[in-house]
């Protein structure tokens, strides 16, 4: 499956998960398809994912992250014991843990495709990021 085919497959899958999205049509433009996919990933409720979705999503995100490049924590110098200060795209950092921002209710962002760290994490961070 190509990256384009994975993107379309993922959009279709996520649209079919919720009957409220029945009228949404997939755009022809790859950039608009990616934006729709990202929006669907950002607003997807925390419910179990099928075993059919996981490998396709992981491969798609692994390829997207590979395009952006990876920064391995081993290439950074700690400012203190096991504490690192780094500025960059958090979705490209290979490390054991990251900290996500939260609102006063301790929940994340509810605006699809918003440029916040919560949406970036929900778009790009997957089980594959440790393997990228």
Structural summary, described in words:
With 132 residues, the chain is mainly α. It has one domain. It has a two-stranded parallel sheet. α2 packs across α4. The C terminus is likely disordered.
Give me the number of helical elements: 4
- The stretches of 5 or more residues where confidence is low (pLDDT under 50) are 126-132
Kindly provide the radius of gyration, computed on alpha-carbon positions and rounded to a whole number of angstroms. Answer: 16 Å
User: What is the overall pLDDT average?
Assistant: 84
Strand content: under 5%
What would the principal axes of the Cα set say about the shape?
globular
Total individual domains: 1
Q: Kindly report the spatial arrangement of strands forming the biggest sheet.
A: 1-2
Given helix and strand content, the structural type is: mainly alpha
What helical percentage do the residues reach?
A: 40-55%
Strand/helix succession? HHHEEH
- Biggest sheet overview: 2 strands, parallel
Summarize, please.
The chain has helices at 3-17, 30-43, 53-68, 117-124; strands at 71-72, 93-94. With 132 residues, the chain is mainly α.
Characteristics of this structure?
disordered C terminus, mainly alpha, single chain, two-stranded parallel sheet, 2 strands, 132 residues
Can you lay out the helices and strands and say which pair or pack?
Layout (H helix, E strand, L loop, with lengths): L2 H15 L12 H14 L9 H16 L2 E2 L20 E2 L22 H8 L8
Parallel strand pairs: 1-2
Helix pairs in contact: 1-2, 1-3, 2-4
């Amino acid at each position: 499956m190509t990256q384009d085919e994975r993107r379309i497959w993922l959009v279709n899958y996520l649209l079919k998960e919720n009957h409220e999205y029945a009228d949404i049509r997939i755009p022809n433009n790859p950039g608009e398809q990616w934006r729709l996919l990202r929006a669907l990933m950002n607003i997807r409720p925390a419910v179990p994912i099928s075993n059919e979705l996981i490998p396709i999503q992981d491969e798609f995100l692994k390829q997207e992250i590979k395009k952006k490049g990876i920064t391995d924590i081993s290439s950074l110098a700690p400012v203190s014991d096991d504490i690192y200060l780094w500025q960059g795209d958090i979705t490209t950092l290979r490390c054991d843990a990251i900290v996500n921002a939260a609102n006063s209710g301790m929940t994340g962002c509810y605006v699809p495709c918003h440029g916040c760290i919560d949406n970036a994490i929900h778009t790009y961070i997957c089980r594959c990021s440790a393997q990228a």
